[in-house]
């Protein structure tokens, strides 16, 4: 929403918006001339209508419930209301666009594409779900011909996008509040792929390979039968070195300044997208070494009393597994791009949504197995009603059944975690916070809450 607001404001529209929580993003929007309301009241709509000579268009996201006061006021005033995806779809139509879809890696791949285009003097416009390090923002209003957009599949709205190039990273069942099964997701992605002029898809994902007829393919496993391939030569805790193939021909080698085969997969997707867009590989190769992951993707927050604190958005079992594998690689190889090497991996996991926790309880328990110590925060509801028997204690119990020798602690709330971390971690621990909720504020709590007022925790047998 903030990215769309910035672009529309730059293109001459009068833009207003509201959010219940203050943030640097809101401060930036306000500084650019956008009117910001810090409460979502019916009076906001009334004030906007009075201050404009034309009826405003009201844009909402899927997160806005029908009981929202602003939404109800807009309905009462008979204003036109549209979904954020409708605005993004119009922007995508207006210029050559690259839309990135898939269950995992969308934000990172979109960030890589944006960065490669930016440093190739293309000055793209970008609307992405995470902070792009190159721009230090989740959006950029460029003057170049390209637009890069993250195509979120969570509510199915990406079927509206008609991009010049659609990139599909992988497909797994998620967002079960919208999709009843994997087939439902596949049908949605098929519509998205057919709506795009060209497509680029991950050959390594069996679900995509068996169901999507992409016009271009990429892989980190084979160079045969694919358009773009990055075959790893060396993977350690600092970097990923790979040979790059285009239509089966070796064209060069890259050194990606981050570990993890999933990051290499995102990188070859970005390289492929930029090559299709006409960017010379020689130019891309020189830029690869400057790539950085977006905010909340293995995001180093700082060192707290000898512990390195890293935050990651992972909230699906596959994402958790990939992130923990990368952290474990750093510890075992004793090579890392973090400031110091670590001896243990302490995972602080915040389950996201009761429905997702119920659907993937066993998968989460297995995916968290690389932990030397597991701390589990309460489920972040994201507005869902609790499900009986589905909670952090249930996840801890399932985890212990799979890994009986690994200690696990369930916390009562985020404030508890500061003392739990202080009492149960040590120097040279890598403390990795995982989740799509508000677990990322733990770093700030560790910084400020030196002496939590109270805490409760249930500790299962180590």
What value does the Rg take, in angstroms? 23 Å
| Name of the top-level CATH class of the largest domain | Alpha Beta
Number of domains: 3
Share of helical residues: 25-40%
Strand content: 15-25%
Category by helix and strand content: alpha/beta
Q: Mean pLDDT score, rounded?
A: 94
Cα distance, first to last residue?
45 Å
Strand order of the largest sheet: 7-6-8-5-9-10-11-12-13-14
Poorly predicted residue ranges: 451-462
Overall outline: globular
Let me know the number of strands: 21
How many DSSP H or I helices? 16
CATH fold call of the largest domain: UDP-N-acetylmuramoyl-L-alanine:D-glutamate ligase
CATH homology-level superfamily of the largest domain: Mur-like, catalytic domain
Q: What is the compact description of this entry?
A:
The protein is 35% helix and 23% strand. The protein is α/β, with parallel strands linked by helices and 462 residues long.
Structure overview:
- This protein has 462 residues and is of the alpha/beta class.
- It has three domains: 2-79, 3-Layer(aba) Sandwich (Rossmann fold), CATH 3.40.50; 86-288, UDP-N-acetylmuramoyl-L-alanine:D-glutamate ligase (3-Layer(aba) Sandwich); 299-459, Alpha-Beta Complex (Protein-Tyrosine Phosphatase, Chain A), CATH 3.90.190.
- Helices cover 35% and strands 23% of the residues.
- It has 16 helices and 21 strands.
- It has helices spanning 2-10, 24-31, 42-51, 69-76, 84-94, 106-118, 182-195, 206-211, 261-276, 281-288, 317-333, 354-359, 361-367, 392-402, 414-424, 442-448, and strands spanning 16-18, 35-37, 58-60, 81-83, 97-101, 125-132, 137-140, 147-150, 165-168, 198-202, 216-219, 228-235, 240-246, 249-256, 299-304, 307-312, 344-349, 373-376, 408-411, 429-434, 457-459.
- Strands 7-6-8-5-9-10-11-12-13-14 form a ten-stranded mixed β-sheet, with helices on both faces. It has a seven-stranded mixed β-sheet with strand order 15-16-20-17-18-19-21, sandwiched between helices.
- Strand 1, helix 2 (24-31) and strand 2 form a beta-alpha-beta unit.
- Helix 3 (42-51) packs across helix 4, helix 6 (106-118) crosses helix 9 (261-276) and helix 11 packs parallel to helix 13.
- It is globular.
- The relative contact order is 0.08.
- Mean pLDDT is 94; it is low at 451-462.
């Amino acid at each position: 929403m903030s990215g769309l607001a910035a672009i529309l404001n730059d293109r001459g529209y009068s833009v207003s918006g509201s959010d219940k929580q203050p943030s640097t993003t809101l401060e930036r929007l306000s500084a650019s001339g956008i009117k910001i309301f810090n409460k979502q009241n019916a009076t906001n709509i009334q004030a906007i209508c009075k201050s404009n000579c034309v009826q405003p268009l009201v844009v909402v996201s899927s997160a806005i419930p029908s009981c929202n006061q602003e939404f109800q006021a807009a309905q009462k005033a008979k204003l036109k209301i549209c979904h954020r995806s409708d605005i993004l779809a119009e922007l995508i139509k207006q210029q050559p666009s690259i839309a990135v879809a898939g269950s995992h890696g969308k934000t990172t791949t979109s960030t890589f594409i944006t960065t490669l285009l930016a440093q190739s003097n293309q000055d793209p416009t970008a609307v992405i779900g995470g902070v792009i390090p190159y721009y230090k923002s989740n959006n950029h209003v460029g003057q170049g011909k390209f637009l890069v957009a993250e195509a979120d599949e969570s509510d199915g709205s990406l079927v509206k996008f008609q991009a010049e190039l659609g990139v599909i990273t992988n497909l797994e069942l998620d967002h079960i509040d919208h999709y009843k099964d994997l087939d439902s997701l596949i049908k949605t992605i098929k519509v998205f792929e057919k709506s795009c002029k060209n497509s680029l898809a991950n050959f390594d994902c069996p679900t995509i390979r068996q169901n999507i007829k992409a016009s271009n393919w990429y892989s980190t496993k084979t160079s045969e039968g694919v358009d773009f391939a990055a075959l790893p030569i060396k993977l350690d805790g600092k970097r990923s070195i790979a040979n790059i193939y285009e239509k089966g021909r070796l064209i060069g080698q890259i050194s990606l300044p981050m570990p993890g085969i999933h990051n290499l997969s995102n990188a070859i997707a970005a390289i492929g997208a930029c090559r299709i867009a006409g960017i010379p590989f020689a130019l891309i190769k020189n830029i690869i070494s400057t790539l950085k992951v977006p905010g909340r993707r293995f995001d180093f927050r700082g060192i707290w009393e000898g512990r390195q604190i890293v935050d990651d958005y992972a909230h699906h079992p596959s994402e958790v597994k990939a992130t923990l594998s990368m952290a474990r690689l750093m510890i075992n190889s004793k090579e890392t791009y973090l400031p110091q090497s670590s001896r243990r991996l302490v995972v602080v996991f915040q389950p996201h949504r009761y429905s997702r926790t119920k659907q993937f309880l066993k998968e989460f328990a297995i995916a968290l197995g690389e932990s030397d110590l597991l701390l589990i925060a309460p489920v972040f509801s994201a507005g869902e009603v609790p499900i009986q028997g589905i909670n952090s204690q249930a996840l801890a119990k399932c985890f212990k059944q799979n890994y009986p020798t690994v200690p696990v602690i369930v916390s009562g709330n985020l404030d508890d975690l500061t003392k739990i971390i202080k009492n149960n971690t040590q120097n040279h621990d890598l403390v990795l916070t995982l989740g799509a909720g508000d677990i990322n504020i733990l770093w700030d709590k560790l910084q400020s809450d030196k002496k939590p007022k109270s805490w409760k925790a249930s500790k299962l047998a180590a």
